[in-house]
Design the sequence.
């Protein structure tokens, strides 16, 4: 069985959907502790407009400080919306950038103020520069299983856009259930269409939100269909702008717990992730949704004494 | 594909693990609203000692009032720990009782103050009476995937106890991940052993707690292996006595959402369950863990207008 890969997106997709903000030192410390726990693929931030996404302000400082404090490089990435973002990126380059497209027109307009077609024109410029600089490009495709504006999304349309992102030069495309509406059967249906289109499974990642509690079931179903790369967020950082009070990103701890207990992921120190969860919770002034964060890992080193009252 | 059956255990397994208690009228109203939402298998309470489980006091009144207010009968059940509980049960009989055994000695001692062997002797008396009275008997087997006192549990031991409960006269045995430590692969391993032992899958139910976020993944994995009956709890009522602050039972709304969106369960009115969740939340003075309860169902009847700010 292929070992599971985690792409930690809490410091970007997570934090950008939190009301409270944390500073550069806390973000740097988080990266270092994620590395210490054994995670290797980490999104460090985004070069987006600080007025639009104030939580990502200071990304350049975060990247610079992280690069000063660790020898780790491979697996670090930063989100880039456009050509100007790529200029920022070049001031502290890491081996990888991520770009993001939408599977629905209405969300594309709402999220990045342009049509899907126009967004691909923008990406082309960025990807061309990245290729020249030998920077890997990862693609996010959002709203693959449902859109708050268009409702159900045709999986064939998703397959077409995944192919387009791969042709554009993305080495990996992350298919997103951005509002957490997918069910395992829908996930299987889309993955089978991707396979039918001859898209290799090692170029696809799953990005599932837990808004309706189905993320781990969706991830497990995707894994059974051949996907082994998943985006997760420490503590389940990040909410859902379309369902106030609901959770967003699936929690790293819960996903790691599920796969480690199945013997499919061995090198992650879950306790270190839980410790970082607790710190993050203090920094943000809120409890994070991760269930493993609350219940702890298992098996515990010491079992309870039956004579004690529980 | 076989349609999914839900056994609603929130008013028993859920409430008995909540610190706050709700009165008989609220419990009666809950049963009626669960029926109105389309659920048919509902555990009404337990005839246990009110000093040991104060939340279940008034079960006789709940049963009597429910029976006075609806013609529904089939699918109602009450938990019975022993012969004396069966006497209580006879004062307001419903078509089904449930008994509960443990897969580990230490939990059996701790939970019901006797060895597994002794517990089966007690059950024998109850089951003999139930058979005579034409009352169906359902068996719970707890700690099938891990025990807070013994750690890992041998699945072969679980298979032996399931067989024993079936031989004793249980028409269905619910295998419990009582402390929420199972992973999908462990679930699959146990179910395959059950099948190897020639136990028919329609006599097995899955009872998964969401303490570490894996319940829906475990349920989905069990479903793929042939299980189609699952115990769930409205709103995710009930915590975990071994992990304070953690969640316990998997939420009915989340399980119904997952299977309805997959077209495997059509007759449940999810919105009515969410409405009851909100009432229960007021009665108990706490937010319930169900994610669908917070985020709402999908597809929503009306999609958002992209020109609005979300």
Sequence:
């Amino acid at each position: 069985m292929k070992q599971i890969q985690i792409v930690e997106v809490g410091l970007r997709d997570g934090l950008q959907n939190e009301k409270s903000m944390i500073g550069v030192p806390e973000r740097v410390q988080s990266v270092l502790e994620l590395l210490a726990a054994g995670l290797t693929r980490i999104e460090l931030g985004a070069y987006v407009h600080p007025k639009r996404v104030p939580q990502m302000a200071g990304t350049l400082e975060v990247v610079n400080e992280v690069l000063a404090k660790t020898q780790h490089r491979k697996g670090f990435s930063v989100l880039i919306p456009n050509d100007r973002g790529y200029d920022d990126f070049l001031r502290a380059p890491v081996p990888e950038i991520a770009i993001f497209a939408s599977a629905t027109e209405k969300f594309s307009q709402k999220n990045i103020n342009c049509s899907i077609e126009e967004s691909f024109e923008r990406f082309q410029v960025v990807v061309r520069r990245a290729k020249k600089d030998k920077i890997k490009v990862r693609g996010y495709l959002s709203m693959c299983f449902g859109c708050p504006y268009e409702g159900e999304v045709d999986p064939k349309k998703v397959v077409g856009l995944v192919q387009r992102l791969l042709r554009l030069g993305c080495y990996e495309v992350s298919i997103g259930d951005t509002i957490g509406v997918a069910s395992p059967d829908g996930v299987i249906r889309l993955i089978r269409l991707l396979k039918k289109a001859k898209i290799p499974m090692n170029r696809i990642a799953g990005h599932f939100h837990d808004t309706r509690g189905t993320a781990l079931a969706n991830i497990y179903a995707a894994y059974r269909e051949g996907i082994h790369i998943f985006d997760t967020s420490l503590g389940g950082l990040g909410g859902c702008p379309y369902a106030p009070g609901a959770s967003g990103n699936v929690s790293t701890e819960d996903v790691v717990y599920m796969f480690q207990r199945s013997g499919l992921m061995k090198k992650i120190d879950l306790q270190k992730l839980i410790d970082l969860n607790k710190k993050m919770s203090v920094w943000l002034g809120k409890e994070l949704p991760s269930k493993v964060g609350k219940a702890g890992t298992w098996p515990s080193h010491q079992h309870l004494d039956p004579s004690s009252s529980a």
Notes: The two ends of chain A are 38 Å apart (CA to CA). Chain A touches chain B through 59 residues (CB under 8 Å).
